[in-house]
TrEMBL record:
TM region(s), chain numbering: 58-82, 151-170, 211-230, 236-260, 272-291, 303-336
Compartment(s): Membrane
InterPro entries attached to this UniProt entry: AI-2E-like (IPR002549)
Superkingdom assignment: Bacteria
Protein name: AI-2E family transporter
Organism (species): Candidatus Gallionella acididurans
Keywords on record: Membrane, Transmembrane, Transmembrane helix
GO BP, sorted A to Z: transmembrane transport
Record's bilayer topology term: Multi-pass membrane protein
GO CC terms in record: membrane
Length: 352
């Protein structure tokens, strides 16, 4: 019994040290964590390619090339759309300023009794002169860039490390798993393998649920934006829905694109506010209903636990804490299931 307690204390100490290291090293773990997540998602495809007698290195290169192509296609959709929307927004800006003068000022005078003077020509000149001199912003940003050089270099290194780490993780995936398998204590091997298989099953359910969320939110945004008559509803909806796998990124990107599209298409502010309402409702529905039900229920987590996990991991580990929240919660869920089974069969529970 003493040896068993000592072994348990050793494992607990190891887990605490590992958790502390992850917390302290979280700023530099970002590219490796992101590469590990994407490698885990892509590994089944690599395995399928190797089953067709392709060398694993070539299979990994093909999969990464496919991901790069998808990313390039996404940029080809977003950048021209954004450029067109911004140029049309600037062209329509004078009309917006004049419309604000004719509609907003009378309301302010009616509600507050304020006698405000509005020089539309001067405001137009201010906006246009600032827009035309936007190139001078870079000169003003140089001191900030110099003082934030470390952060910029760190971001650049993260972007460079991500594909490198992903390539080696995918190429050496089977070998790495085999080496980890050798480290499992032999007397715990069967139970540990069962736990790992359960974690893998839960993670697979998580991925299926996340794909369902992406498809459902793409349909929602594209359909509702089309119903309110917004141009570019289909590409904006697809982009907003496909990016929901990164928390808030899909909503922010889609909202930005849709707002620009609405401002260049509609002459009244109410239509722009309607677009904002669509994305506000979509974000609330996705966070409070869709993700908890399609992802949380698949991995066995209560909807409230899903919301708590997103907030807790985001607070502890920042952006990629949000990305890791549900997968890590799924792993903890499996651990809790086995821990509960052990507790119910232990003398601690059964002893009168």
């Amino acid at each position: 019994m003493t040896l068993s307690r000592f072994a348990a204390l050793q494992w607990l100490s190891f887990a605490l040290v590992a958790a502390l290291l992850v917390y302290l090293l979280s700023p530099i773990l970002t590219p490796f964590v992101a590469a590990g997540i994407v490698a885990y998602i892509c590994n089944p495809l690599v395995q399928r390619l190797t089953a067709w007698k392709l060398p694993r290195t070539i299979a990994v290169a093909l999969v990464m090339a496919g991901l790069l192509l998808l990313f390039a296609l996404l940029l080809l959709i977003v950048l021209p759309l954004l450029e067109k929307e911004v140029s049309q927004f600037v062209a329509r800006l004078p009309d917006w300023i004049e419309g604000t003068r004719t509609h907003l000022l009378p309301l302010l005078q009616k509600w507050f009794g304020a006698d405000l003077q509005w020089d539309s020509g001067a405001i137009k000149n201010i906006f246009l002169s600032h827009w035309q001199s936007a190139g001078g912003v870079l000169e003003k940003l140089l001191p900030w860039l110099g003082s934030s050089g470390g952060a910029i270099i760190g971001l650049a290194l993260d972007l460079l490390l991500f594909p490198v780490a992903m390539f080696y993780l995918l190429r050496d995936w089977n070998g790495g798993l085999a080496r980890l398998d050798e480290l499992i204590p032999r007397h715990l091997y069967t139970k540990t393998r069962a736990v790992i298989a359960e974690v893998d099953r839960v993670m697979a359910e998580f991925l299926r649920g996340q794909i369902s969320v992406m498809l459902l939110m793409s349909v929602y945004y594209a359909l509702v934006l089309w119903l309110i008559g917004l141009d570019f509803a289909l590409p904006i909806g697809i982009i907003a829905g496909m990016l929901v796998f990164v928390p808030y990124l899909g909503m922010i990107t889609g909202l930005t694109l849709a707002t620009l599209a609405a401002m260049m298409q509609f002459s009244e502010f109410g239509s722009v506010a309607l677009v904002w309402a669509v994305f506000g409702a979509g974000q609330l529905t996705e966070a409070m209903v869709v993700t908890p039900r399609l992802v949380g229920e698949r991995i066995g987590l209560h909807p409230l636990a899903v919301i708590f996990a997103l907030l807790a991991f985001g607070q502890l580990f920042g952006f990629f804490g949000l990305l890791l929240a549900l997968p890590l919660s799924a792993i903890f869920l499996v651990a809790l299931r086995y821990g509960k089974a052990w507790y119910l069969s232990s003398t601690m529970y059964r002893k009168p």
